[in-house]
Amino acid sequence: xxRLFWSCLAASLxxxxxxxxxxPSESAEQNVRESAQYERLLCTxxxxxxxxxAQECGPLTDRQMHDNCVASFQCGASQRRSNQAPPxxxxx
Length: 92
Fold this sequence. Notes:
- By secondary structure, this protein is mostly helical.
- It is built from 3 helices and no strands.
- The termini are far apart.
C-alpha cells in the first residue's frame, strides 16, 4: 500500500510539473502589478500615504531611522524606484 501511495504521488508531481512551473511567472507578474498600484496610491492619495507612514515609521524611536523611513515614502522623479533588482539579489 505505501508503495502505491508513493507511485501515485510521484505521478501527480510529474503531471503537475508544467502547471507548477507556470505559477511563479504569473505570481511575479501579479506582484509587479500590485506594486505599481501601491506606488500610485502612495503618490496620489495623501491619506493613504500618511497612514502607511504612521504604520511603518511610527514605531521607530531612533530619529535618524524614523527620518529615513519617512524619506522612503517620497514620490517624484528623483525618488522613483528602479525596476531592477538590488545587487545583492542579482544572480551572476
